[in-house]
Amino acid sequence: MPATIHELTAAYGRGDTTPSRVTEEFLARIAKLDDKIGAYLTVTADQARAAARASDERYRQGRPLGPLDGAPITLKDVFCTKGVRTTCGSKILESFVPPYDATVTERLAKAGCVMLGKSNMDEFAMGSSTEHSALKVTRNPWDLARVPGGSSGGPAAAVAAGLAAGGLGTDTGGSIRQPAAFCGVVGLKPTYGRVSRYGLVAFASSLDHPGPFGADVTDTALLLGAIAGHDPMDATSIDAPVPDYAGALERDVRGLRLGVPNEYFIDGMDPEVEAAVRAAIDVLKGLGATLERVSLPATPHALATYYVIAPAEASSNLARYDGVKYGLRVPGHDLIEMESRTRAAGFGAEVRRRIMLGTYVLSAGYYDAYYGQAQKVRSLVRRDFDAAFGRVDLIVAPTTPNVPFKHGEKADPIAMYLNDVFTIPADMAGVPAVSVPCGFTRGGLPIGLQLIGRALDEATVLRAARAYERATDWHTRRPNVG
Amino acid sequence: MSTYDVVIGLEVHAQLTTRTKMFCGCPATFGAPPNTQTCPVCQGMPGTLPVINRRAVEYGVRTALAFNCRVNGACRFARKHYYYPDMPKNFQISQYEEPLAEEGSLEIDLADGRSHRVGIQRLHLEEDVGKLVHEGTLETAQSSLVDFNRAGVPLMETVSKPELRSPEEAAAYLRAFRAVLVYLGVCDGNMEEGSLRCDANISLKPAGASTLGTKVEIKNMNSFRNVQRALEFEVTRQAEALDRGQRIVQETRLWDADRGYTRSMRSKEFAHDYRYFPEPDLVPLKLEPRWIDEIRGALPELPRQRRQRFAASYGLPAYDAALLTQSRALAEYFEAAVREFPQPKLVSNWVMSELLRELPGDDERAIEQATVTPSRLAGLLRLIDDGTISGKIAKSVFETMVRSGEDASTIVRRDGLTQVADAGALAAMVASAIAANPRAVDDYRKGKTAAGKAIVGQVMKASGGRANPAMVSKLVEEELEKLTKR
Asked: Which domains does chain B have, with CATH numbers?
């Protein structure tokens, strides 16, 4: 304890333990440790027990649903869960109980996963530390004084602390990879459209990517395999066959061409991060991959562009929270007062800031200068990746320029935004990227290596990540949380 | 009052008669109990996503082709933002910079017999909003309820160019427009139920001037008559203002049908900034040229073509042809009746004078469900044609048919309405009528031929209208001649 999903399900198959027994162990750990970590907003013990019992029965009959049957997992509280409140870390949705499941919720249930509960996040996924959650503080299991990253800090911390064997998050500007790096777990952002967004409460529609967290690459690949694939309920989902991600993991990386982008090694980044990432790249070279310098010249503009596009879409997506239909309602003398009061009380400062930003950039007379221009830059970012992937198979880079910071350390929004400088470009281009643990600082804080691949080529991204993992033991280290 | 040129453009919103809504699988039918035809998608719940209704796109393309529009091979949906509680997401998925179709036209017929081609600027698809139900009036209500059944129903917006030159032309455009939609089977055209809604932009300029005046938008006109009345009011209002040297304010005005005037709703300064941007949840819609061709190939005959054909191939007067083609159902009714009783003008007369006395000719459903079916009308006309009943009796038989839904022959047989055409029986009736009216014989003798008509009337009356009028006339004349010569 804790173990990986593939170890657990193998043990169920051998009859060494059962999903119910393991589920009880996880629930007991949550009860004991989550006061300290703060990963969970809602624990669904009864549902988890029922799902585990059903899984027990399948194993007893020798007919498990697959390699995830009985896997205890957590969902970021951005995914709708029928009958279970889905808060998005916001006061405005604190009491919202969706009457439907997100497609990924449904797919994980069909794969036999046992959902332990819903985990914390920055409000509406806006943030890089989970400090913007209106409902709870989540702490980094490696150092409780520090943040777990964000916005998917809840699931990342839960997996790192052994409060769930795996999880799902969303990545809009780095919200899976950055907390994965900060918490020392694996986090994958798939290709845009690879995984359905139906039932994922939208932040920025063209940038939101649902994806898995795992304690290792194999678990991450298994979870991706369960949630990937076309969904008729999401018009932007891609109708392409889903490869056997876990099955292709063990091939080596001999001859794989890796691109090292200049723009991802910048002044001001943490020297320990740079050193660890460069060492990791050498490990991959040692395994037979070839290295090449590549340039992604639009990278320095990606961050500013992101802070036009994402708030614009957010201002639109969040317009529906008006107190009329669901969630918080603060009464007023008339409709406008009710709506204004509801939104003022229901949204936190960061969400309000982005709504204002987005409303401004979409306004008549400003649209072309901001939103229109940002779309042009976005296509330059895409073109950078297209050009690079003409020469290399993967791009290797740090996930973040720095290590987990302390709670309250980045009170200035811009300082917080700069955290995502290396993760935003892959979101803008929609290409898949993973963060895998690649070392620790002298102070014992985890560091993440980022591998970025071609659109729909998650298999290569995961294979290289697995090859690196096989050659190192960073992923086996666990924080001491009691 | 000085003379002004009137410039009008119409925006028409038509609810499409698709089975399901624009972006989800809920039924799009009218009149269900509140909020029973809704789902998370059309309620705008968090996390839900729209998926385009293919049939709605097909209906849009069909309409665009009927108006000779250019159908864009690729179009996009866009979000239009404003806060209103009948709109679940507080934005409407519509189309903005890249509409489904552009640059078409609709030819309308004017009262003086000439026609006028009105340009159509664009046609696009969007979703309808829900409905608010207020306790009392909007101003006094303590609370309001919202019904999302209508939210997400497919709407097609068609914007004309500002090429209508009078309120009459605007009404004529709207009638012709509605007829095309109904012929295409894409909209039921019911303005009272709101399946067809019309907003107008209207401005005046000094006669012959080249620059347009300031336009005013008029909303809330829910019938053809109201469109014309509202625009007539507005022409007068604007002309009087201009005559007084005032400037027209760019604004949106609401038509109040009860009071018969328009009043200001909001001025340009308070106009919404809709903050349009491309709908990121939908990929650009690409239309296969082959699919467009298929839709073109399956277009039905349109009202104008049908009217021309009715005049040409049935030899009907233009007036008849226009009246009979006002709706697809009526035109089809006429053609079905003519197939069974191939005397087009007679059928036309009966449809115009009798059927349309009972039913509104532009009400598709009413015509389709008429108790006097085309076949029954043909049966009635055959009874006139073969002399079984007189035309006069036939009219009362028709009325009975409307009420009872029976065949003409059944009614004629049961009520003993068969025409009396037996020469002996008629001769006896004529003789007794003459005997009872000696003065008429005297008058006739003095050269007053009208006296004969009075006798005919007496005979018809005595026969309960069943006597064959032609035979009676002939017999009366013969008998009076005989009497005179004596």
From this structure: 4-293 (no CATH), 301-415 (no CATH), 423-485 (1.10.10.410)
